[in-house]
Amino acid sequence: MASEEELFASVDALLNEEPHLPPPAERARLREAAGITQARLATALKTTTQSVKNWENGRSEPKSPRLEAYQRLLKGWAAKYPAPGAVPAAAPAPAASTGPAASRVETADASQAPAVGAAAPARPATPRPAAASRRPAMKKAAQPAADPRFPHGPLAVLDGDGCAYGVDGIVLDCPATTIPELVEWTLRESGLGASKLNRYGKDSDPLIVLTAAAAVKVGLPERLEGHEQRRSLRLPEDHAVVKQVVKAKWRLTQRGFGPWARIYRKAQGRERQCVQLAILSWDALDERSWPGVSDMEPADIARVLGVYAQRVITPRGSTAVSGLELMTALRPPTRAVRDEASGNWVSAYNPGSLGTEPMDPAPPEATAEHPVVVDSGWTGGFLNEEAYQWVRPVDLLTDEECTLPFAVGLDLNTAFLAAAARLVVGMSAPDHFVGPEFNPKIPGSWLVDLSHVEVDPRLPSPFTPDGTRPTGPAWYQTHTVAYAQELGYNVEPIEAYLRRETGAYLDPWHDRLKNAYVDTLADLGVTKDLDDRAFLAAMERHKNADPALAAVLAAIKATVKGGIGKLRERPQGKKYKEGERWPALQRPTWRPDIRAAVISKARVNMHRKMRNMATMTGLYPLAVLSDCVVYPSPGASPLDFLPYAASGKPQPGGFRLGPTPGLAKLEGVQSMLWAVDLMEKGLNPARHIKGGDAVLDEGE
Question: What is the average pLDDT across 688-692?
């Protein structure tokens, strides 16, 4: 039992607490009763109109010294304008923190702020949960302990009123009116940034996303106009904002001031000085990768990008750029080692990475415009490892198939991500061999004749993207040739370009993106413990459960495809001339052989599943486009034709439903007669069902 002294001490502590602010609705009532506008109140308290709105709708609370001034004002109004039928009384209020960060940050909170002891030490404000909503609870990404250098998260969305919306509902006051001021504020005061993803890597630079109003406020045009593609547009070098940046001794990267602009100075010691900007009204967030995000409110945009940053990486450009940057962040090219001679720490190659220097591909792995092809006069052909785009000829349809009323599309979840798992790729330069013996464990490119391999004509050929049978020798990636051997055929390579050093370079990239994908699906109600029927029902409604998280899911999928496609980014721009080296070739991550390995493995995996499905069920696909395969079906659900054992469990080897990468989901249901009609007209029903998603994006 508590002693008398302890009880009196507790009571004294309650008596010494300062009063609470009244509830948000009462704050608004008092201001309106006094006839004061939100803008006038903001001017008096030296803050923004949006901040006052936040205080009155419960999204944030003022901090010292505004807290005391606002509290005094509300007390005076409460004495003059008491609530009808109520006796004016002040409720307890918390003591305010007084650190520099506390004076500039407001955090979203519930309608009543928790009490803070008056003797609590001053410290930077930290994000707190946003007000309760109807959104499903979001699983937090697995993260290391919070980095005190970045108390306010990885990014913020800046609106025209000076409010910068961060993750977890945090709101910062940003006084900047020019780009140089914005950069200085971001680096010196905002507390934004993210810790490195690998012990040898670099911290993620803070990201500031500007709304159209914010862009205009800092002197940028609301829209970029020109004949080029939107992603290629840049501010001219004589633009006033570019001159401001240069005058303030900041630099722009080679891509200039476009939708994604990086502004930096040379690092001082170990401290980076770099800020990433994204301008929403310049189409920084592509609608295909970030559906609906640009039209969201700033706080919701911050939530979408914040979840993506926590689970994947702080965006550095398009999802394709971010996918490539994630590879490097997880496999940094260098590490610090001690020089035995001098005893100093020096930079050295990090084993398992692609290093710091670009590597030319073998001629058959390159593109026709690449210098290794143009300069050597290479005419020996090229790898053609691409995703499927195949439709079964109409004359191979049976009468029974034509009577089935439905065509059902099965889309493999992030099929190319699944193919990257435990994928061994070359880490060294290619060596040329003549007449080598085939070895399925050595990554590389093989010239071999696979025209003798017999495949059921109701299935696409596993060796070509269009599904047609090879007619003679051609270049193939190791997985494609190994599959011919798996089918029981002898393979005799004519020549090959192989790599002696190998490694599972993409493993950490696969693991992080897989976890991000599965966790985000789970937040949308699609979990691993669902049976097939419940899984299909959850997938049917998951996009409407939370549009913000649905956009994160779309961005994760785009990151996978875009990142793999960017491994073979081709030249862009009208000024390019064949044989010249384009900027992408200067990256160690320009590796078309790795891209070919991922696509080859994914296509072989797809064919293996289709072959097993034919063996187990007698069903053959109507069409295949990329990672979507279309089957004739007696019903509108894949449950009507997928193979199940007597126990009710899916048969191994074929297509299985589930949220894990590599498993299938229902993509679309179309009339069988409609699909046949398209094929008779020479059109691809898979394209019409799935949309034009056949090619892994190589640009952006």
Answer: 39
